[in-house]
Design a protein that fits this description.
- The protein has 446 residues and is α+β, with helices and mostly antiparallel strands.
- The protein has two domains: 356 residues, no CATH class; 47 residues, no CATH class.
- The chain has ten helices and 17 strands.
- The strands form four sheets. Strands 1, 6, 7, 8, 11, 12 and 17 form a seven-stranded mixed beta sheet that branches.
- It is globular and about 65 Å long.
- About 15% of the residues have low confidence.
Length: 446
């Protein structure tokens, strides 16, 4: 039997593909993650849905299968289309692979800023398959660059799949994707070996929907802090070098500090350890080996702020966009929806980067303990015997909901510049919402 060709920069952990069972059974759809129109040469444009099945597998389904999906999935799709003034993006591609992203590895010490990075997860596809064969499903690693990931996340913001909020106190819930090149530049230009990647929580943490905003914030933060470390180490000029990055979760940072013997009071960490010991381990990369009795903690950032920082970092990144990044962008026809009261502010605005004293971002706990056994084979092969440990970002280490330890916490002035209008609009809209008694028959739709 002839082995199906895989994208050039994807390396499978096992040569034996697993069958992907849900393509012919839309009734197993658990959540809808995305919708787009695919246009290939010699084919009519066709709308497609990306879904997550009850077993945790990613699948692409023709939109014609919509009516066969469970009612909850149909509701998710209807909400996205109506609430987002839906205009389906069109992708000029011969084939699309799906990639369930579980882990990001950033090797430490590579020269330059736009380093190669490794993405670990499960690849399925291609869609559509001209030969009519069932799509493959393989675990493995995909190599791209930091710029590829940052660009994929920032450009997907406008088309991110939106879910209804279960509670008015929740923030907007969206599922982001990344369009990534899986092959050489000429393949990308022809619309071949393209990969739609979805950073997803482990199946046991997914409940009402597959929103991944907290994962995306963590990915953006880790990539930006990795670039910032390289800028400082190599003494390179870039606006990001002097930025004090916000953190994705103040709650997580405060938990780290408390474990190191510090007491949190507002925006300040007070040292309770023996005098002169200072910060230990990964926290030292944020604050340095300080011996002060107290330090000011960085603020918590929103996903819009991280997206803005990422876009501005890319704008000043030498050699970016690359040839394949430009080729990839030419394959996507994005239409700008009309202004919508619930739409966040434009994340590609030219808000100046926040300036602070140069300091290193925090190194969060390693994800090695939560990576699968098959990932360890790749990780061990990449790390030199005496080299530093890589930065790892695991979807299993991110809390599904953003949790701030103190909702009344003050923020720096620069944070107000990012999304003040959108935040006030959301507050006004939510204040108007009141719980209304519902007939019992409506409970059948929940």
């Amino acid at each position: 039997m002839t082995q199906r060709a895989l994208p050039k920069y994807f390396v499978a952990h096992s040569a034996e593909p697993n069958a992907t069972p849900t393509l012919a059974d839309p009734s197993l759809t658990w959540h809808v993650l995305d919708s787009f129109t695919l246009h290939a040469r010699h084919r009519q444009p066709s709308p497609w849905l990306v879904v997550l099945d009850s077993l945790g597998n990613l699948q692409a389904l023709p939109e014609t299968e919509r009516s066969a999906m469970p009612a909850t999935a149909q509701q998710q799709l209807a909400y996205h289309e109506i609430a987002d003034s839906h205009r389906q993006p069109l992708l000029e591609a011969q084939e699309i692979y799906l990639f369930a992203l579980q882990l990001l590895e950033q090797p430490v010490g590579a020269p330059g800023c736009n380093d190669p990075v490794y993405l670990y997860g499960t690849l399925s596809g291609p869609y559509p398959d001209a030969a009519g064969a069932a799509p493959i499903c393989l675990q493995g690693q995909l190599m791209v660059t930091r710029g590829d990931v940052l660009t994929g996340l920032t450009q997907s913001a406008a088309a991110a799949f939106r879910y209804a909020r279960a509670d008015v106190s929740e923030q907007m819930q969206r599922c982001f994707h990344l369009l990534l090149p899986g092959g050489a530049d000429d393949e990308t230009a022809r619309g071949e070996s393209l990969i739609l990647a979805y950073p997803l929580f482990p199946r046991e943490l997914i409940t009402q929907n597959a929103a991944n905003e907290s994962i995306v914030s963590q990915l953006l933060y880790d990539l930006l802090s990795g670039i910032q470390e390289d800028l400082v180490r190599e003494n390179l000029h870039h606006p990001l070098r002097t930025v004090q990055l916000p953190v994705p979760s103040r709650f997580a940072l405060e938990q780290q500090l408390q474990a190191e013997g510090y007491v949190i009071k507002g925006d300040t960490a007070h040292k309770q350890a023996a005098g002169g010991e200072g910060f230990q381990g990964k926290l030292a990369s944020l604050f340095g080996a300080l011996i002060n009795e107290k330090v000011t903690l960085p603020p918590e950032g929103t996903i819009e702020q991280f997206l803005t920082l990422a876009q501005q970092t890319l704008t000043a990144l030498p050699g970016w966009p690359s040839a394949r990044a430009r080729a990839l962008q030419q394959l996507v026809r994005e239409t700008t929806p009309p202004a919508h009261p619930n739409r966040p502010a434009n994340t590609t605005s030219q808000t100046p980067l926040p300036v602070a004293r140069p300091q290193m971002p925090p190194r969060l706990p390693s994800a090695t303990s939560t990576s699968s056994d098959w990932m360890q084979d790749f990780l061990a092969a990449h790390r030199p015997a005496q080299g530093p440990a890589p930065r790892l970002t695991s979807t299993a280490n991110v809390h599904p909901t953003k949790t701030t330890s103190s909702p009344a916490r003050s923020s720096s002035d620069w944070m107000k510049d990012f999304a003040e209008n959108s935040l006030s609009e959301r507050t006004n809209n939510e204040a108007k919402q009141r719980p209304v008694p519902r007939p019992e028959w409506m409970e059948d739709f929940e």
